[in-house]
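Support case: user asked for a sample of complex input and structure output to validate their parser. Sending the pair below.
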Amino acid sequence: MDRFHPIKLFILALLLCFTTAVTAAKYKAVNEAPDEIPETAQEQEIWAIGKAHQAQVRKTSEVVNDPQLEIYLERVAARLFGPMLDQIGMEVDVLVFNDPTVNAWVYPDGTIAVQTGLLAAMENEAQLAAILGHEISHFLNRHAYIQLVSKKKQASFGKLLGTAASLALAASTGTQADLSKIGAVWTELVTSGYSRKLETKADAQGLELLVAAQYPPQEALPAFEALRIPEDDTANISKVWSSHPDIDSRLKNLKKSIKKIKSAPRTVPDSLSYFQSVASALRANVKLDMQARNYNNAERVIAKYIQAKPMDPEGHFTLGEIHRKRNPHSAFEQRTQAYQAAIQQASDFADAYKELGMAYRQQRQNEPAAAAFNQYLSLAPNAPDAGIIKGYLQSME
Amino acid sequence: MNKRSLTILITTCVLLLSPFAEAAKVDAYKIKKKDFKKQVETIALAPPEALQQLSLPPATGRLIEQEISRVLSRKGYTVLPSSVFQKIRDTMKQQVGGYKLPDGSDDLEKMRAVREHSHRELLFQHPVDAVLGIHVRLVAAPFEKDKASWDGITQKVQKSDNSLYDLMGGGKYSGNIGAASLRLSFWDRDENLLYSHAGGIELVMMRNGKLLEPLPTAGLLKDEKRIKSSVKIALKPF
């Protein structure tokens, strides 16, 4: 107990206060908590509609249902909010959407929405924090609300408010409101981006939040770089980021701001713990990428997943399937290696044996192909394609 | 299936397809035309199929394939007839013990297994560069004043009876009506879509006063001239 002598604790506390004061002085512009939110009745109404919409989407497959992932993301967001959370008196809420585009946004009530594509594109927690800091800055400055009540959006806003009455009526009568009607309007409103001026401001203030939360600011650069849309990938342009100032000028501004920061945190959080924390989102995103035949990205993300969960046979099998689907008539070595790795983790993984057999058969390696097919049939004798596999075996005899 | 069920089914399909009825013109080629010619020499035909409640008379399937083979051969491609693919598929169907479950319904898992394996087996056995999917499908054709236009053709909407309103000269309707089209899709060995284009065949619905109802199936997809024309249109950009 001697180590925690009251005097030592007092000195430590003084030091901490001093450090905080220095940080605060250096980053004086760190967002201050708004005096009171929601401020107006209209803003309260918007929050209520937003909450109702969030509750609705939470029940759908649009959202990744992983409480552990949400807790992790909320912890990162809470670290960025810092003491402001208590001042505002709010709880952090994060929604993860099943969508492979690199995107995030914030609802007017501060609920942060991130897409699996964004989580999959980040390499560590600091990069994620850089994006969340940007979104939190939008919230603290009420950019969503400002945007919602702006002239430009009045038509959509009118539609949205029009639903408020029916929501209130439904709540008072205990009946189910038809939230699907507001879903489209709401999503359009909160995801259609801000003016470039507001974006630039959010970039700067997001960086300050990042530093105040003791994340290395230089990680904001690869994070924003990941938002760059490949020239040939026009389908991937999200509404939000297409309205942002171009990535080059954002990076230029960020670099300038980072240079000005003295004694910024330098320790970059390790990638592995980040991948482990967001593993379910990585897995979900691989599935989406494969559906979209975006095999290169799927391979990049499944590699992260395998790093996070090397004992999960599904990860290795999926890697084999990515190779197979991208190159059905080649890449045999990568395929067989991946299927074998899956079998190493789960010796009863029937589909891995089948695909291993198929890969060997394609290379006319009948002996290992037959061994793998026999193993498949012993594990899955009633599989729908069992008869076909028996046919392959007969043809190889 | 009785007429009422058929009407409901086709109408539902038409309603679902309506948003695509006036889809913008798209390029048939999904890769550059010169790249297609460079990478494709041998094309395997998949057996012609009718989708969405349409049924394809065997003679029509043969005619479609004949016309396609003629055009492709003339352009210098080697064509593997659909009988090759069909044989693989039939063998596999037999190997899985048919598609019927004990209760008489279709075993969708077995159907999926045969579809996947037969495609892989075709490419394993034959050095084809592309597979041509041949599908006759139901589409929603926009019509105005009883004239429907879709996938490169125009056809007058048949009326089953002249209602009083029609007789008074007011019976000119607009909307979407069920029609059949032939869609031809070329896929490479890695299952990337290389080309896809459709040619209209004929309307499968008629107007009865204000209502739309299906034409008798017995008379559908048998008009040789229309079938040949649909192949010509579907391969026009080719």
